[in-house]
Design goal:
There is one protein chain. The protein is low in regular secondary structure. Helices cover 5% and strands 9% of the residues. The chain has one domain (1-107): Gamma Fibrinogen, chain A, domain 1 (Gamma Fibrinogen, Chain A, domain 1, Alpha-Beta Complex), CATH 3.90.215.10. It has one helix at residues 58-62; strands at residues 2-3, 12-13, 82-84, 90-92. Strand 1 (2-3) and strand 2 form a beta hairpin. The longest helix has 5 residues, at 58-62. The radius of gyration is 14 Å and the shape is globular.
């Protein structure tokens, strides 16, 4: 994962996902009628709308800054915040944390 500079509005690049929950940064879901993946997007806030959603500001709507494309397949914070399981259950989340490793770091 890399995040570009302020000059590039903190554009996000995500590669190398592994896990069993699905890759919401890179997976497209046409069944929802839009492209919600965050990879390649610039960071949006309530006052700086960098998303591609034509009907408003996703960050203002969800009360959360994020790399939105079309109001989301992924979002770490916001209101409401739910985790959707692989079988479709929605579980409320009360807190979250995103941690980034700066510099060259390899497993």
């Amino acid at each position: 994962m890399t995040v570009e500079s302020e000059n590039n509005r903190y554009r996000l690049h995500v590669t190398g996902y592994y896990g069993n929950t699905g890759d919401a940064f890179n997976d497209d879901h046409p069944e929802y009628g839009y492209n919600g993946k965050s990879n390649g997007m610039q960071f949006s806030t309530f006052d700086i709308d960098n998303d591609e959603y034509g009907s408003g500001n996703c960050a203002a709507y969800y009360q959360s800054g994020w790399w939105y494309r079309s109001c989301t397949m992924s979002r770490l914070n916001g209101n409401p915040f739910w985790y959707s399981t692989l079988i479709g259950d929605l579980i409320p989340i009360s807190a979250s944390r995103m941690m980034l490793q700066c510099g060259d770091y390899y497993y």
